[in-house]
User: Which sequence fits this backbone?
């Protein structure tokens, strides 16, 4: 035995290998609408395991940089590796007037006004929040909202609308029209688990000039995590940036916050955040068995995926790479993440009704 | 009250059935209160609290307050009911009143105790008006209430399991950790042995996180009386602590009776005798608590006591509301007797009691005094009875009462170097914040860099710019369980219902196919065992039989770490592999064997630490020359040594294992092994290695002084022998132990450094 702690190390390794944060279930149990459901159906599981083994065989002896054509980015905390791709994509241009009109028509956004009061007020000629600036009781609250609208302060507006209504309220999508397409940062991360473990891939997408550009910070080793986090921070902290995610309120953003705190990196991350999952659920809850991104992709966008890896199994695919150095298992992970980013942006556009000549 | 206690004594004296079993009566005299003064008064609000309750501070309470005021850590070891809680609550509240951001964390070993104590904390909060928003944060806290507690509460009551789960979420606890001034560990003596190793590492993780947020909390340990409070506090918290041990509280007179059921011939079991005593006490009008050594016995004695109303069982595993009803029943007098496991040894408030019956030596003097301290509060007479089992140690105490009453409380062993516990918590720590070998060396000891390297080899940690980071895909805190080193558990199912869970060893021994299993007064028989799925199937059955496993054990020396030659005896300490095979079992009815059965189970392997020593050839020859059996003598000596070990080292008899053989391949001589019953070892054999002369001396006296002819449960019979106590030769054991004790004591030179 080389070292007194090797035996303990092997014990913990064996225990980590046994740890699984999902259950494999039969076809008939496929019911959960939750995108972070801990169930994987048996056929998907078996297919993914075969895929992983095939990839390990197919990519034996190849280097990561050789399989994924990217570039190295240097940060003060080290280097990381980024992959870029570009495709066609359009979002409607900024339309502050339309956004303002939609928001200001909703009197219930003013603190203290419910639906009944709104009806009464509208009957008395208060058609918009702007009209309320004259109202003795709601003057002050209305002025606060008007300020946010006039300043295009989507961060406060999103919070306010989310608080007064639901996080799925279409008005939030209208509020996003304060932003130009270049403002949106589409974000999706892949991790080694549900929390308190490293992020292994941070995917960002930006839209502009009729195209969508994805940037994927793929960790060649988990020690590059800090560099990758530092590298994406400027995107997230830019003045005017707005975040778009799928379930990012519950997962991606708290996860990134936790990892930043883990490394002691200060960050505000206070940008406005549009979580497409909420809008999608509201719109398609009754149309599909589940509102997972992959299901909507097939059902709404008509995109099919081949050789996909179930999100829950990403950790073991990465672990296979981490332990063998064979980049094969990462191929579907990177593709999965890239596809998620593109579908996220397309769903966002679809939910906003972009391209319908709405402007 | 006093008359009820008197009535009970009169009853014992009048009835020969009771009287003749009394081995000894010890009277512990009453004691006056000693009050103290503070260098500067408590804040007005707290003075009002004390005055409103007629509280005058005892000397030890004042000492604790003064020490905590000047920033020291303290360990308070005064007895049950001496006002330990007040001794730390007052200074904590004083600080929290002066610093409106300051926070404190109180850790209790059980949720039940936290639920009991939160009432005391809230009362102080309400009466003093010092706002701390005291709240419990544990597995029962609803998710919706958690954020508010994290953001607002200044005194949080929790338990080690919850803290273990909370630490990875420290970013959500920034406010609390940044302002953390006190960490109170109540019932700290509970954290010894393996539990202590885990607690020590958990507290280091906590201090590391607090340090990350710029806080350095003071530790307050509230503990039962121990032999080594300073060492214990330093091991557990990693820091020095002031010891507050001199009790200033008053006491009424206590009568402590040693009671030996086997002093009289008869068929009555210890449990029946315990029941008789309990009924006699309750019928004399005494409010009585009866402690048993197992859950099964608590149930059994309570069931047998049904003839008298107002008696109930109490143990872990009951629903919280049922437990509270029993606690309240004791307090308000509607219950007159409660039979309990050590669950009520903890400081749950049950009012003052007249008497305590301890059925079987609970394994440590710490527990004896904790349990005996449950009767009799500030004034008035009370009693405690220790009912001896027919095992060597209990019987030794019956024959040597002066040893029992002069005996110091045990050393609390906390091994902070156990590689399994240490590395498991290192993994958790690395998932909480990157581990920097230089900065974090103080928490994880000199083995840190070796551990980091070992973890890198198995791809669980990676070195990054800010330190070593966790790279596993499971949650680190889910890998490490605080209650045992291994988390290899089996589930016992009855139909679709989970009866209980047990570890692999226990499952092989107690729940193998064909085993009779007792659960809440019901008998089950095991019908199937799935080793891959870790599932055991049991069916209800009505039988008066029970089963006992037959097993074989081998010990192989892996590496000898230390060796001493004491008077010609070679004593070694090192790593061993213990292999146990459960090869079969017997079915018994009333201690009579009904049938034998074979089993085919894979071996259980335990990598642990052991001490072993060989017998000189000449001694073996003496045994043979006297026509005695060497193997039987070695076996008897081994049992006696293990039986007296809890006297010298904090452990339960079940924590240690032994093996003796007339010829062992590693030593080529007659050899006795004594090993820790935990993967990796927990420091018991290591301690016994240092104390072997004392252990051998006592084992020799035990066997020599026993009144039996050829060995009995009181000397060399072991209640947990895997070989049916065969072979055993008492005379040979006496010769071997005399020789061993003689050689060891003749050569009592200082220990190896």
Assistant:
């Amino acid at each position: 035995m080389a070292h007194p702690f090797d035996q303990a190390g092997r014990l913990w390794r064996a225990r980590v290998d046994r740890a699984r944060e999902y259950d494999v279930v039969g076809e008939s149990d496929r019911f959960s609408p939750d995108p972070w459901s801990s169930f994987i159906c048996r056929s998907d599981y078996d297919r993914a395991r075969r895929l992983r083994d095939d990839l390990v065989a197919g990519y034996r002896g190849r280097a990561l940089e050789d399989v994924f054509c990217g570039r190295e980015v240097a940060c003060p905390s080290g280097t990381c590796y980024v992959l870029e791709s570009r495709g066609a994509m359009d979002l409607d241009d900024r339309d502050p007037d339309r956004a303002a009109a939609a928001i200001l028509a909703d009197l219930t956004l003013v603190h203290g006004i419910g639906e009944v009061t709104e009806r009464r007020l509208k009957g008395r000629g208060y058609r918009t929040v702007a009209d309320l600036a004259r109202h003795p009781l709601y003057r002050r609250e209305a002025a606060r909202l008007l300020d946010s609208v006039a300043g295009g302060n989507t961060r406060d507006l999103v919070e306010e609308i989310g608080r007064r209504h639901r996080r799925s309220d279409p008005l939030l999508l209208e509020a996003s029209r304060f932003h130009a397409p270049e403002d949106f940062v589409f974000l999706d991360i892949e991790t080694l688990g549900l929390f308190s473990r490293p992020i292994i891939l941070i995917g960002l997408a930006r839209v502009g000039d009729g195209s969508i550009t994805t940037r994927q910070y793929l960790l060649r080793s988990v020690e590059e995590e800090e560099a990758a986090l530092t590298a994406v921070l400027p995107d997230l902290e830019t003045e005017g940036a707005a975040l778009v995610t799928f379930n990012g309120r519950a997962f991606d953003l708290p996860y990134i916050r936790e990892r930043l705190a883990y490394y002691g990196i200060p960050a505000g991350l206070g940008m406005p955040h549009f979580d497409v999952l909420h809008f999608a659920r509201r719109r398609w809850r009754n149309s599909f068995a589940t509102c997972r991104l992959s299901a909507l992709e097939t059902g709404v966008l008509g995109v099919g995926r081949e050789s996909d890896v179930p999100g829950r199994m990403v950790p073991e695919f990465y672990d296979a790479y981490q332990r063998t150095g064979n980049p094969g298992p990462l191929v579907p992970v990177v593709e999965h993440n890239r596809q998620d980013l593109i579908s996220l942006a397309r769903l966002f556009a679809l939910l906003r009704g972009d391209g319908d000549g709405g402007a | 009250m006093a008359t009820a206690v008197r009535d009970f004594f009169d009853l014992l004296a009048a009835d020969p059935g009771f009287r003749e079993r009394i081995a000894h009566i010890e009277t512990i005299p009453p004691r006056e209160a000693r009050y103290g003064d503070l260098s500067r008064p408590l804040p007005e609000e707290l003075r009002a609290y004390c005055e409103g309750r007629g509280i005058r501070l005892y000397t030890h309470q004042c000492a604790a307050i003064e020490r905590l005021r000047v920033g020291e850590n303290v360990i308070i070891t005064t007895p049950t009911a001496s006002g330990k809680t007040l001794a730390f609550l007052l200074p904590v509240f004083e600080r929290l009143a002066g610093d409106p951001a300051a926070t404190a964390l109180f850790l209790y070993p059980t949720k039940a105790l936290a639920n009991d104590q939160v009432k005391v904390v809230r009362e102080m909060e309400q009466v003093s008006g010092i706002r701390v928003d005291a709240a419990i944060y544990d597995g029962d806290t609803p998710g919706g209430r958690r954020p508010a507690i994290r953001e607002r509460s200044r005194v949080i009551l929790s338990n080690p399991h919850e803290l273990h789960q909370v630490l990875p979420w420290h970013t959500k606890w920034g406010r609390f950790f940044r302002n953390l001034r006190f960490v109170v560990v109540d019932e700290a003596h509970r954290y010894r042995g393996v539990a202590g190793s885990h607690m020590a590492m958990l507290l280091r993780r906590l201090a590391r996180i607090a340090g990350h947020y710029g806080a350095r909390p003071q530790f307050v340990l509230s503990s039962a009386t121990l032999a080594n409070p300073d060492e214990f506090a330093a091991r557990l918290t990693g820091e020095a602590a002031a010891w507050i041990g001199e009790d200033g509280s008053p006491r009424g007179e206590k009568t402590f009776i040693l009671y030996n059921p086997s002093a009289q011939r008869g068929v009555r079991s210890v449990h029946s005798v315990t029941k008789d005593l309990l009924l006699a006490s309750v019928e004399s009008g005494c409010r009585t608590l009866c402690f048993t050594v197992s859950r099964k016995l608590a149930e059994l004695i309570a069931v047998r006591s049904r003839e008298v109303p107002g008696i109930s069982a109490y143990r872990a595993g009951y629903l919280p509301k049922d437990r509270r009803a029993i606690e309240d029943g004791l307090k308000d007098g509607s219950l007159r007797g409660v039979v309990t496991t050590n669950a009520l040894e903890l400081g749950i408030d049950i009012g003052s009691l007249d008497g305590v019956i301890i059925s079987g030596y609970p394994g440590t003097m710490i527990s004896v005094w904790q349990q005996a301290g449950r009767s009799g509060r500030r004034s008035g007479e009370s009693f405690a009875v220790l009912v001896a089992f027919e095992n060597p140690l209990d019987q030794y105490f019956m024959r040597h009462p002066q040893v029992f009453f002069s005996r110091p409380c045990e050393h609390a062993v906390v091994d902070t170097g156990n590689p399994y516990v240490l590395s498991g918590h290192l993994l958790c720590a690395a998932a909480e914040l990157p581990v920097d070998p230089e900065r974090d060396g103080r928490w994880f000891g000199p083995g840190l860099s070796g551990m980091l390297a070992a973890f890198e080899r198995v791809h669980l940690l990676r070195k990054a710019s800010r330190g070593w980071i966790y790279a596993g895909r499971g949650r680190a805190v889910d890998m490490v369980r605080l209650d045992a080193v291994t988390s290899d558990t089996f589930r016992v199912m009855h139909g679709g219902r989970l009866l209980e869970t047990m570890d692999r060893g226990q499952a092989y021994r107690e729940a193998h196919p064909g085993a009779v299993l007792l659960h809440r007064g019901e008998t089950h028989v095991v019908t199937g065992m799935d080793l891959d799925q870790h599932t055991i199937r049991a069916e209800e059955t009505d039988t008066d039989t029970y089963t006992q496993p037959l097993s074989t054990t081998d010990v192989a020396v892996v590496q000898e770490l230390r060796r001493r030659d004491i008077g010609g005896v070679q004593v070694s300490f090192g790593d061993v592999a213990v292999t146990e095979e459960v090869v079969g079992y017997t079915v018994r009815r009333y201690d009579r064997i009904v049938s034998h059965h074979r089993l085919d189970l894979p071996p259980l392997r335990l990598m642990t630490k052991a001490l072993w020593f060989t017998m000189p050839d000449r001694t073996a020859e003496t045994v043979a020359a006297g026509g005695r059996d060497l193997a039987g003598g070695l076996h008897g000596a081994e049992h006696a040594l293990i039986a007296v070990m809890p006297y010298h080292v904090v452990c339960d008899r079940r924590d240690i294992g032994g093996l003796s053989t007339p010829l062992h391949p590693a030593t080529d001589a007659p050899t006795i092994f004594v090993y820790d019953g935990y993967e990796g070892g927990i420091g018991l054999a290591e301690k016994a290695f240092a104390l072997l002369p004392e252990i051998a001396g006592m084992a020799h006296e035990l066997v020599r002084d026993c009144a039996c002819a050829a060995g009995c449960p009181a000397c060399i019979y072991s209640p947990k022998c895997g070989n049916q106590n065969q072979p055993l030769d008492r005379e040979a054991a006496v010769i071997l132990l005399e020789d061993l004790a003689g050689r060891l004591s003749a050569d009592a030179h200082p220990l190896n450094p």
User: Anything to note?
Assistant: Residues 28-36 of chain A have pLDDT under 50 and may be disordered. The CA atoms of residues 56 and 134 of chain A lie 70 Å apart. The longest strand of chain A covers residues 78-88. Chain A touches chain B through 44 residues (CB under 8 Å).
